[in-house]
Amino acid sequence: MKYILVTGGVISGIGKGIIASSIGTILKSCGLRVTAIKIDPYINIDAGTFSPYEHGEVFVLNDGGEVDLDLGNYERFLDINLYKDNNITTGKIYQHVINKERHGDYLGKTVQVVPHITDAVQEWVMNQAKVPVDDDRQEPQICVIEARMEPFWLGGTIGDIEGMPFVEAFRQFQFKAKRENFCNIHVSLVPQPNATGEQKTKPTQNSVRALRGLGLSPDLIVCRSAKPIEMAVKEKISMFCHVEPEQVIFIHDVSSTYRVPILLEEQGIIKYFKQRLNLPIDDQPSDLLMKWKKMACRYERLLKVCSIALVGKYTKLSDCYASVFKALEHSALAINYKLDLMYIDSTELEHSTEAENSVKYHQAWHKLCKADGILVPGGFGIRGTEGKLQAISWARSKKKPFLGVCLGMQLAVVEFARNCLNWKDANSTEFDPNTKNPVVIDMPEHNPGDMGGTMRLGKRRTVFKTENSVLRKLYGGETFVEERHRHRYEVNPELTHYFEEKGLKFVGHDTEGNRMEIIELEDHPYFVGVQFHPEFSSRPMKPSPPYLGLLLAATGTLNAYLQRGCKLSP
């Protein structure tokens, strides 16, 4: 097993996840089997109870793991399926060690950070690195580890305290794994102040010095910058950071993340890994990286634009809907359109906003009205739901292509009940526990006293109950699909016949037939709701069918696509 540790310095959020994913993609293109692990130093057991404004979206895996969004990047770039144990947190490690102590595994010894916590980290990494993540179920050969443990962040000492056990664990691990099996890549920022226009290397020098002081020496230094870095800057970093010039890699801001693996490959990273880790590979990448190059070039040449309005409550931070954005982007690219995603705060569509700030209200409605399609994603809580209902009502009545995901589907049912069945107080018990018409109810798994891990999570089977379904055709005529779920509430199965009589069809349900999974509205270009989260399974070269359907309908090409037998035009 070869281990590649990716650390970061200067500031967080400079693209370690994309760089780690891109390195994995390059090595996979050379014919190697690659897995990935993300280390987060917070004490939470997992990301399930985070607000999206804390760390972005919560990504859900096949096994129901609620994890950091970077695991979504790994899955999309590498086309693999990871597990919840591929996301290591301080909480998981300490829980694991404390459980062993309570079990008597330490035979009366004093349990300490060193060696017990650091050993647990190393054992976890070695065990999880062996778990197959490809469809062929073979053991991986390379494990890329992204460690969010920077003790040299800009912003104080919090990173110092919580990340130190992981730094020490990998200081020890590099000797346990042996030099020919362990490589450290350090991602740093090269800022360029507007006042001088000069690219500054001092933050990178300090960052590398701090890393060395903790016992880890970088084999590669990946320098992030807004603009391409000059050769003199590369030579300066090489000299002061004690590495060869070819060990300094530049990654400047690019038009799309698809370009990052290509930039890395162009700077000789395959040749370096082959020599440094004794990899049995050729110096040149395979057809896989050529496909990435073609995809990146195609993305940059797109001229036709399709605009989608995303109506949600976490619109101030784009990472809150990272997988939704990627699923839309994959689908747009598949049909040769450039995506124009307009984020609309659902509260700004509500009548209360019209009274408080009429400018915001009319700007939000202007965005919604000019969009080619409307998407209402998942979410929790009552805030903004009335605005989402307004958007859904507009999409239904104006025959605008619409996709509702999770809460978006539930609200589509609520909106239909209120405006088409004339059940004016229809609601979800999440928002009104005493409603007379509970069209959305909480599930048996829901435990109101415990928030973490009490939802219906992970990959579940959805069975189509009719052949006359747009979504079934988009899925290639399959009798069932398996997609990932994350929800506490579901459509009330006792009331579905009222909706079906009025044209809102429940075309997919779970294997027992009790849980409604897919809705489609008759006599509408594309009005679809899904209880699952198809965005988590979308890949750059395999777009998600529900999202692809939305883009096709929004561009007026859905019928032609279905007539061609669900084949994309060249």
From TrEMBL:
The keyword S-adenosyl-L-methionine does not apply. Residues 317-546 form the Glutamine amidotransferase domain. Residues 2-279 form the CTP synthase N-terminal domain. Pathway: Pyrimidine metabolism; CTP biosynthesis via de novo pathway; CTP from UDP: step 2/2. It catalyses: UTP + L-glutamine + ATP + H2O = CTP + L-glutamate + ADP + phosphate + 2 H(+). One of its GO terms (biological process) is 'de novo' CTP biosynthetic process. It holds the Pfam family GATase. GO terms for cellular component: cytoophidium; cytoplasm. Transmembrane segments: none annotated. Its EC number is 6.3.4.2. Keywords: ATP-binding, Glutamine amidotransferase, Ligase, Nucleotide-binding, Pyrimidine biosynthesis. GO terms for molecular function: ATP binding; CTP synthase activity; identical protein binding. The keyword Phosphoprotein does not apply. Catalyzes the ATP-dependent amination of UTP to CTP with either L-glutamine or ammonia as the source of nitrogen. Constitutes the rate-limiting enzyme in the synthesis of cytosine nucleotides. Belongs to the CTP synthase family. This is CTP synthase. It comes from Mionectes macconnelli. The gene is Ctps2.
